[in-house]
Fold these 4 entries.
Entry 1:
Amino acid sequence: MEPTSLTDATEPDELAQVLLEVAPVGMMLLRPVFAAEGGDIIDVVFEYLNPIAQRKVLLPARPTESLRTLYPDDEGLFAFYQKAYLSGGRAEYEGTREVADLVFTYRLVAQRQGPRLVVSFETTTNHPIEAVAEQLHASLTREQAARQLAERQQQEVTRLFEQAPVAISVLKGPRHVVELMNEANATLLGSTREKLLGQPIMEALPELQGQGFDLVLHRVMQGETIVFREVSVELSRANIGKPDSGYYHVTYQPWRAENGAIVGAIAVAIEVTDQVLARQQLELLNQELEARVQDRTRQAHLARAEAERERGRLAQLIAEAPAAICVLAGPKFVYEFVNPRYQALFDNRTLVGRSILDAVPEYADQPVWHGLRGVYKTGRTHLADSKAVPVARPDGVVEERYFTYIEQARHNEHGEIDGVYVFGFEVTDKVLAHEQVRRLNDKLTAANQELCAANKQLMRTNIDLDNFIYTASHDLKAPITNIEGLLNLLKKSLPAEVRTDGLVATVLSRMHGSVERFTRTIGHLTDVTKLQIEFAHPPETLSLAAVLEDVRQDLLPQLTEAGAELEVDVDDCQPRVFSEKNLRSILYNLLSNALKYRHPARPPRIRMACAPEGDELVLQVQDNGLGVGDWQQARLFQLFQRLHTHVEGSGLGLYMVKKIVENAGGTITVESQVDVGTTFILRFPA
């Protein structure tokens, strides 16, 4: 059982008042006044004066004035009360005071009890005896009347003690013998006053043992006032038809003799079992109700928070929507809401709160206006796709812009149409782009028709050219053959001395060389006419390694003669865009060129590699031959171009390689450096 301090009380309880009433000396209850919480004491107020104190200081039982108001000049008295309260122990003070022309000496004994000071005092007079006698004679009648009043008050206190609704008992000595007890206390304890008076309380009521009351009484005998609120106590009360277990307010305070010595304890108790049980039940109900309220409040809060989040998300969605959105209210279509994208269409105007024709007069008698009226009248949603809408620029010029928009009816809680929602997407750029594409398509169609005609003309020209080259090469073969035969005949018919003549031999040799070059040129022209036919071979599944090996076998004598080293890395490449003959032609020309134009100071080293890159195959042919300069690389793939004349050649091979690769959808480039070597890079679809 844990006691509480008297600081829990805020008003003088009934027991304290009863005990003060019967006290044989003047007694007061005082309470300090603080400047602020935790601050200094600035005044002292009177909570209660017992009858003797009232008579001695001529004040009512509960004065309305504070100490400093009553005695503004008595700093010593205030300092005493202040010191007594702050020290928390027993303090004494003597002073003088003039009352009714008499100077009284008074002795104060103060002790702090919780938030109060309990003060007892005695007074004597130091005035000359004659004056005292006169004053006493003058006040004899008053003193007698006061004594009679005190006797009546004492009788009233005794009657009040007996009839008090609280249980009061006075326990004397260290054994706590019941000296005084009212009937209410005996009933509360489940016994009678006759059985308890004169008996040690712990022996008369053994059920109190073990509940801590003996320790509490010991502390009270040491001078401590202890207050219990709703303490649980076990008693034997079956004989009076009450439960043994109950709850009580109990106050224990020391009983002091006239000399201040503690001679016992005064106990005041009130049973509050019904109130506690009712309150506990009420608290349980309140807790359950509070839990329900909190749960519902939490649910409502969560619902509100979710609704707020939804509204926030909706507002953000509308604000960030790629569409121009507005809400029009009533038959005059007053702007009630516009999102930023809609407002941007009319950034120089105020829209909200104005009717649509007042804010945007250019809409009058336009399809957008008629659409709104139709939706408001019928409730049917109106959709317009890529329609022209007039919109005035900030400078007042009305321009035609294009929108895809939806006009939809808004209904109130009665199902009546009270407004229109508008969702619009500007498609001006798309419409203008479509118009531009249409015009370009028209131009492209005309250009295609012209190109087709030009292609047909070019095809006819190419056919004519091929026919001309074929005819010319065919027709020139016979004359040149005749010339060659005549030269041979002339050579044979000339005498030996003429053939050996220096001039004749030189002329004949030059004529034979010219005929041979002319014959080769005719052959080259014939090869060019056959090149287009070679392109027409269908593509097939190929093994690049197998085709390259076949080419290597054809060139094996030249490779051996030159002491060439050939490195091959083409296992990951399987081109499907060439005919075998065309692919063989490419590899043969590139490899034979590497041998032809090798560097005389070192044996040829040729590397052929192929690897996939994305959706392409990249074939590289690298050598360490003569190389060519930058200006020569630009002419390398031209027809009949020969950049090195120390070996035989027609200048047709690389031209044919480039044509074959490009006609297959590929590209060929060259990287070369004089006296270092050349690398051909071919890219074609995988």
Entry 2:
Amino acid sequence: MRRGTDFCHSFLVFAALVACTPTDETPPAAEVEAVAIYRGGVVTAADLDQAVLDLPSQQRLALQAADLEPFRELTGSLVWRRLLLAEARQLGLDQAPELLAEIDGLHRQALATSYLNKALPPLEQPTETELLTAFEDQRERFDQPEARSVFHLFRRLTGMLTKDELVAQVRDVRRRVAAGESFALLAAELSDSESRHQEGFIGRIVPGQLPIAFEQVIFGLDEKVPSEPIVTSDGAHLFFVDAIVPARTTSFDEARSMLRRDLLARQRADAVSAIVEAIELPPGSFVPETDELMALLRAGDPKAVVLRLGDFEMRLGKFRRLVAREEEQLPLSQKLLLRKVMPSRVFAALWQREMAVLAARRAGEELAPDAAAELEVRAESVMLERYQRQLLGRQLDSMHDRLEAYYEGNKKRFSSPLRLQIRRLTLPLTEDASAKMAELESLRAEARAGVLDLAAAGARLGGEFEDLGLRSLDQLTQADPKMALFAGRMARGDVSPPYTTATGELAIFEITRRQEPEILPFQQADTAVRSAFLQRHGRELYHQLISDKLSDVDFTLDEERLAAVVTSWVSGSAASDSPSSSVAVEEGEG
């Protein structure tokens, strides 16, 4: 027999188990062949079988080997979940306002989905002609053109040199690169382009991104061979290709399944919109147009109503949290592109959900039993996650000395962030961008010398000047990655080089104040210390919680019976591909 004091828990298994429905009533151990027993219940082979079936397919595949340890972990996890559920309910956590609000949101989403699924007309499978048309219309999506990693050096034509003298200088740079010098270092030293601040790197270029004359040169170069100088009205350019990624063409057969999914999804979205648009608004409803919604967001009153439909009301404070949660799921590049439209997207989804809930309730519809059962499991999972955080928090409360020792050994991690006071000037990016860039370069020199104010320059050039206030580098990265790249290395009073923003403007900014990082006292850094400590030692603490809990209830594992059950399961799975009660693995699930 194996006791709970040396039981080792797997995070992956527990994460999957929070979606499993526990057995509410466990028969006495004498009436079943128990794989494990504990004070208050047993774990049977049937319990384990269901737990395995509820795991994602990849985790189930890992159980095909006759290794007992994952099954030991799975058995202990079942008991741990049952115990936590019982404790959380006894403490009244299932009635906590925050939990009830989250569960209400889950219920409304499930009810809306159920109603729309019933109301939707049957989707028509796209024809071969429709699939082919979509493929041709989206050819650029499936054909990956040749891409080149490109570096650039530019020397601007000024009154100091003739064009021939400038070209001679650029040819000399080309000669030095051909002789083995680093193009990147030479670009950082000699280029007049903003790309010099990235050692001349302008990115992975595909056809259509640059002027045709430049692309003809770039896509005609061999790797590691600098181009000949390209002379334009404002100077001379040199290009260098560091790496070439060959083009790849996706065939229609390869794209067919993705196109079918996309066309069906679009068909469904159009049908949902039509259903929702036909639902009558209840009296007293408030559904702002996009301009009204943006005005509410700018005003910023957290108590302002942004949506009212029947008994449902959403206020701005909660709506902002919904938007922030959606943005957190996006990579940084998409955050920047979608930031302006994200509130509208979230609002549209919320409105559709609530209109469907309204229609479902008017029709007297309720969730189907299987959907209600799934919702209950999800609610239990949310409650368990909350209770688990509480338990870990209590564990940390009793570890003050260890936390303080961790802080002392990692003090530099717990500093206030560098904050920079920034004033920025932006200009629209027009066809005369090169001339504007040169003018901003000149302004930069004057501003750094203290003989020009950016606000005055903005008024003169017709640009937009703004004081961004104190910002951390993280905040700057969210707003403008290039700004953050420059700002972290700039001193107070320094002015950035001109650059193009992610939103397609020319910009230049100055640092008017630097608030340097300072190591925070332990008391002020407490939350950050606890979070960092959990990241480092969370697995260890969690193992200890489980081990202590299982020991408290005299958890005992019958190794022989478990081994016999596992051997039977593994051999049964190997002998049959069809789903059964013997650790069935459904391909494509999970």
Entry 3:
Amino acid sequence: MSKLHDTVHRVTQRVIERSRPGRSAYLDLMDREAERAPDREAVSCSNLAHAYAGATDDQDTMKAGGAHNIGIVSAYNDMLSAHQPYGRYPERMKIYAREVGATAQVAGGTPAMCDGVTQGEDGMELSLFSRDTIALATGVALSHAMYDSIACLGICDKIVPGLLMGALRFGNLPCLFVPSGPMPSGVANKEKQRVRQLYAEGKVGREELLASEMGSYHSPGTCTFYGTANSNQMMMEMMGLHIPGAAFVQPGTKLRQALDRAAVHRLAALTGSKERSLARCVDEKAIINAAVGLLATGGSTNHAIHIPAMARAAGIVFDWTDLSELSSVVPLVARVYPNGSGDVNHFHDAGGMGYVIGELLEAGLAHRDIATVWDGDLSDYAREPGLDDDALAYRDIGASGDDTMLRPVATPFARDGGMRLVEGNLGRACFKTSAVDEERWTIEAPCRVFEDQPSVAEAFRKGELDRDVIVVVRFQGPRANGMPELHKLTPPLGVLQDRGYRVALVTDGRMSGASGKVPAAIHCTPEALGGGPLARLRDGDVIKLCATTGSLSTSADLDARDPAPDPRAAWGVGREMFAMFRLHADGAEQGASPMLSASGL
């Protein structure tokens, strides 16, 4: 068994020490919750009658007592292609539960917005806070105290973090995440990117662009690029919260059905297990594993926000210094679009998560000894699922099936994980280097300051950005407008870069899991609203962004200036309803969570 890498050990121990008070308080709460869980034999008949009334096929089993009851929390809707398959999951899961003498009920549903639909639109300003809304909805669903274990049906961007944050408040119970898998591959990713840039330049019209996009996003299942949704699935594997190998098996296949069935059977078997309850599974080592997996696969920058928030929900404090130090020793072993040419289907076919986990464990870069929802430890996740006479079986993976997609730790694509902390007199921010050519890791240029995405697009169309420039988009933080993704900036900035200009982006907003080839300092904190440094920048100030030295600074005298006023009020598309979320949100590095901030976690 490989010795744990010194840096991974050091960061883990630092997180454990820093988290000791909060983690102890959390586990004490979970122990108290386990002790006060109602004995259904002693619950009033009126309460039980309400709980059993809708379970027509399972009423006799429930009345007899002793059966394990699985609470399903579903983020099903038809707007998210990834979640569309969940529409039929509850009825199948109830059948699987009956096979082992258990029952299952839909405890509740959560909202689940599609960032792809709201990208660049006003609705995107609800996106990040939808995570906390999902956590709250999960709490409401599980508050009925009728469940012995939890099945979470969710995949996409804010949904998995929100489900986990909510479920962790019921961490005395076992919990398992059940994915539905990615859609088949469509239009090649490089072709999709090419058409997007041609459209940004006005060289093709909407008809050509829509045809390309619909060729990419074409059927039920998760979008196939390696964005936040698929990074979520990677993390659930790294934390041991899936059935092993479940992440990237396509919907509607026999193997998918076998994995779903195994998930329900496993939840029934886990009922009553303190050692493998959610609270014990999601510990400091599991959080470190999630971060290591993110770095090793070049995953979504959104998780620089989500990992700290998920950790806090379990009483753990994890920050960007921890992430950056881990990045310095975790090599990049996967290149999945937008960091490479192949998508998650190609990644899975080449060895997928089983290969990645095996390599990380062999190199001592991940914690093997975590409590998972499966029988053993994380080494169970270093194998590949398959079928043996229609029964779920596992086999060794061996070498990478495609060394343009997956490489061993010994010969990686890059020696570090490509997620770097940059800081200076403009604050602290994240820079994802894994998708950016090294010659562009340092950009020094005058800035042009904007306060929304459309203004950047307009300046691009007018030719005002045809020069070396650092584009600053401010007042995009959690307290200003909910920290929307600014993915619509990628095509025009990519065009400028292709024209030979040295360009970069600095923002207190997000750039999403689809962040591409343009250097960017994102999630800048403190945010502009409230007097953060970005609020004091003016057009023409020279900014230096350097991922090599980890610096984000300007030569301008910011202290001599008053901050710019907040330029807008968020009204329409329901944004006004989230005013209290914006008011209570904490910084991006703490997870940008109004729920955790207001609750004192």
Entry 4:
Amino acid sequence: MGTVAGLNRRRYHALLVASLRPPTERYVLLSRFEEEAVVGDRTFSLYCCQYPGKLVDDGSRYLEDFHGEPCSTWRYDLAGVKLERQVYLVPGRQAVVVRYRSDSALTLRIQPFLAYRDYHSLRHADSSPYAGLPQLEFRSKASLTADPKWYYNIEYLTELERGLDFREDQFTPGVLTLNLTPGEWAPVCASIDGTDPIEPPSSKRHPFIVWRADGKPTIIAGYPWFTDWGRDTMISLPGLLIAAGDLKDAREIIEGFLQFRNQGIIPNRFPDRGETPEYNTADATLWMFQAVRIWLQAGGDIGFLRDVFYPAAKEILGWHVHSADSHDSLLSIGPQLTWMDTKYTPRAGKPVEINALWHGALCLMADWGKTLHDPAEADYRALAARVRDSFRSSFWNPRRECLYDVLAPEGPVAKLRPNQIFAVSLPFGLLESAQQQAIVRIVERELLTPVGLRTLERSDPDYKPRYEGAPVERDGAYHQGTVWPWLLGPFIDAYLIAFGRTPENLGYCRGLIASLEAESAERGCVGSIAEIYDAEEPRYPRGCPAQAWSVAEVARVKNDYGWDS
């Protein structure tokens, strides 16, 4: 992870961040290369680095072009000599390849800079440059001239902007010297597992799909800092795997989370170092029902439903029924258990999307019970009807003609948030047609932006237009106006359910996706979509630069509505 200019602005920017217990225990090992190209009697420095009060930026002046395909590729013009540089990872290995090609003979001097630290921390000089971690090995035709030394006070300015510590020291073992033959690639492979250089991988797959140490697939919620979260995984499955026809891995992921269910709940997070999973989510399990629905619609084996998921689902819903309010059959939860999970949005009580998902799970169980000839079908269908009736009578806000966000113990919360859109986007007839249209219209008018939905309307006194500053300021804005691109998927579903799939409406919704993709390409992570955006112009991408459900929801709706071409 890095920048096109080659300047590391974050502690997470590096050539090799190794996962010692996949997909966790990540360590920044190889931070960067500082390359110098010797052409005749001239030397061209191709690197960038920030020190206190000084930006060393010799490399960008020679940069002619950058492309993300077939892998990250830089092209330099060194006074008429053309030099290419490519960077790519080796699938299944703890290894990165950096390779070079020139149209003229030249010599490269490559100085590796090592951090050797946990990816959340920063390093400071000491007597042990490798910090007890596996030593990095370089495999290439280059020769290494040992010259061990520390470089001090390297700065990451984005960390400074975020109110975090931002200076570190890095170690370099020496200089690799590599002579280039015109027209031939010369690779350098850095690894901790003895990997030899290879060609760039030919197959393309979403980088969010990875394999655990036990060989099972899982989905990373976002790069660089998230791991595999239950809620994010279940929301991302349809777009990342099912839309691509990868039903086998999708099933394995669902089975993997089912394996760890506890009292009707699947984990929300597997901690970095393999501790007990965390069950701090009320919706991950309910989203799993929707993932299975889409998996079956895509051609998934009914035997998996009959033999694996349906029996587990009956147990899961048994726990949910036990915890539902006996008066209205709606689900009530504690604080910070929804996807809006900061202390500034506790949402304790009966959140609108939790109960829309609850109704959806009951409808699915009734349909699946009928398919599998389970007499419990009638009970599920009756309970779904009770939830529907309670939902309509309790959540409808007649003053604004939309839904309350939460039915709190002290009364309904009338804040206008996007969570109500799921009461329309889920295909189970939870609301009347006129209610669906009214909800979509108010969300469109007050929350829709070119890059997703705001999390709070602008007129609300708690509204925050920008996501910036120190951690406490950012947390305060996370769900108080900040835009989330992934919500564009359910908004499009809701719009087309409420107003129909006419050519005009399909064209309008396709334009929303095109707008998000154009904005992401203009300023964001190359080939990906950010976690969040500022609520007001200029809308800078914030949070994780590459977020699974942002990418997945775009992929899903493009597949669902035939917009892939």
